[in-house]
Amino acid sequence: MNHIGTVNIETRRLLLRRFVIEDALPMFKTWANDSDVTKYLTWLPHENVKVTKNILNTWIEGYKSPDSYNWAIVVKEQGKVVGSIAVVNIDKDNDKCEVGYCIGKDYWGREITTEALNEVLRYLLTTVGFNRVMAYFHSENIASGKVMQKAGMKFEGRLRDYAKNQKGVYVDCDVYAILKKDIV
Fold first, then answer.
1. What residues contact 2, with CB distance under 8 A and at least 6 apart?
2. Structural domains for the chain
3. Which of 81, 86, 119, 130 gets the most CB atoms within 10 Å of its CB?
4. Residue 99 to residue 26: CA distance in whole angstroms
């Protein structure tokens, strides 16, 4: 493994970069306080921008670690942060990790998340050296599964009562993954 942390990744339309504290207000306004965006996630919408700043401070502090991977998704044309994509869990013994992502509702359906996920997967599998990258989502969040499929991830199954939702109710989750050998 070659843990080098969150580096800038550029695509045709996007810049994936580290978060900065100045991202707090756009993050709060664009997705972190939107109940439609967080509907299928494990966390509730942020009540105020102070909550967002606290989370950003934690993420920014995390960049000190070479195995921290947490990108702000910026649409280059606008220069505005519109979402996030990150490694949310690492299993160093088995060279695998789990990713998660979130994007503002105004950017749904534009394949921005797919574009970001494609590049992050390539980076994690080829540059960092993970053998496996997986993601899971609330089974009713069909759009998230489509993003994973378009990024080359394969459906591996449905986990019954796998995670608690925001209300503490167990929900089924679908799992997708991609292996290093799938992209090389």
1. 127, 128, 129
2. 9-132 (3.40.630.30)
3. 130
4. 22
